[in-house]
Amino acid sequence: MPRPRVHAPDAVLDAAEELLVERGRAQLTIRVLAERSGASNGSIYHAFGSLETVVGAAWLRRARQFLTLQATAVEQELAAGDGRRAVQAAADAPARLADDDLRAAQLLVALQRDDVLTDAVAAPIADKLRALDTTLVATLRRLARAVWDRGDAATVDVVTVCVVRLPAALLFGEIRTGRVHPHTRAQLAAAVGAVLDCGPPH
Amino acid sequence: MPRPRVHAPDAVLDAAEELLVERGRAQLTIRVLAERSGASNGSIYHAFGSLETVVGAAWLRRARQFLTLQATAVEQELAAGDGRRAVQAAADAPARLADDDLRAAQLLVALQRDDVLTDAVAAPIADKLRALDTTLVATLRRLARAVWDRGDAATVDVVTVCVVRLPAALLFGEIRTGRVHPHTRAQLAAAVGAVLDCGPPH
DNA sequence: ATCATAGTGGAGCGGCCGCTCCACTATGAT
DNA sequence: ATCATAGTGGAGCGGCCGCTCCACTATGAT
């Protein structure tokens, strides 16, 4: 009964993604997005409600892609029974994503979770973004149990350092420039191993 | 012969520092800075020329403080002849700065070099900021030589990972929240050791 | 043919931004 | 006393922002 869409929402997200990777969040304005995507200001607001919702929805697609890839890699190593290697695989996941789909990795590197999940993100997208936290924490706890037979806060913190902080330090810059060196991945695996060897606080 | 200053430029930098730590760069506007520092819009522009110059000058003070502390720690370990421990000391420098002067560390964590050194920074401050790069690279090369008797790009890159990237990953979040745990410093030392053991690419 | 309605396009509102402009002020030199 | 001048204070300019508003359109149902 209504007029059909002429701008697919996904096409707007694609344009937003390009602009976020090329120019960063601060340069993504509704006017630039309208020009790049071909959709008018009015269409974008009708479909999404706010610019931050567009950013949230674009990020959500890629974060899901990443977590799926990461979970697959983790399950594979856990099936082989090696908790330590599972943590290393989880840490290496951003590098694997960059191999598979550089733009996906570049979007996740351009914008962190807290940059995305702001008050202006519409509830349906915000809820889905928060659901990703639960997924990630579940993976982290699973890894902590695999290494130490414990999934308490202290062990989860150690795994978080290995799987979130160390990859950000070593890989993100190279993903941004488009080339992840094998040597950097080896350094990451070594650093993860060393942090795991420290164990949780006393 | 002229009218004397009623607002010391350092007091404006102090106010800018507070605001940067408390609210971040995006919330630091000339109006907020004028209100907090007590200096008027006109005074601030007369003294600095642009808001980005204020930010640059505030950051410069703290970056110098940090590099001095870091260089002292490095020299001490190099005098003892242990290149590996010198790299670990350099990596630990942000944690030591946080112990000495939390606000200094928080400013450096709130803003990275590239956020500060923009086109709008007045030449005298911009030049001094660029001079810090030279100082840091000299330290990195010195460390590379101490570990491998080489100061080429490949070895300097490894030291950069140890001294710049790993501390950012492990310490910055805790500095932001105001409490650096000893266990985190131990993890950092272990990760630095592991990355050094990898050596430069083949 | 008419109607209800989701979607479209673009003018423009209100607000904040960095910065400019300029009348004015407080000093030391004469 | 007068003057030159570095510094002060604040009004307000021009520009960009996110977002609203609303007349209009293209469709399927009747």
Automatic annotation (TrEMBL), chains A, B:
Q: Name one GO molecular function term.
A: DNA binding
Its source organism is Micromonospora pattaloongensis
The UniProt entry, under PANTHER family, shows: HTH-TYPE TRANSCRIPTIONAL REGULATOR YJDC (PTHR47506:SF1), TRANSCRIPTIONAL REGULATORY PROTEIN (PTHR47506)
Q: Which domain of life is it from?
A: Bacteria
Name under which the protein is recorded: Transcriptional regulator, TetR family
Q: Does the keyword Transcription regulation apply?
A: yes
DNA-binding region as annotated in the record: 29-48
Q: Which UniProt keywords apply?
A: DNA-binding, Transcription, Transcription regulation
Q: Which Pfam families match?
A: TetR_N
Residues in domain HTH tetR-type? 6-66
Q: Which InterPro entries match?
A: Homeodomain-like_sf (IPR009057), HTH_TetR (IPR001647)
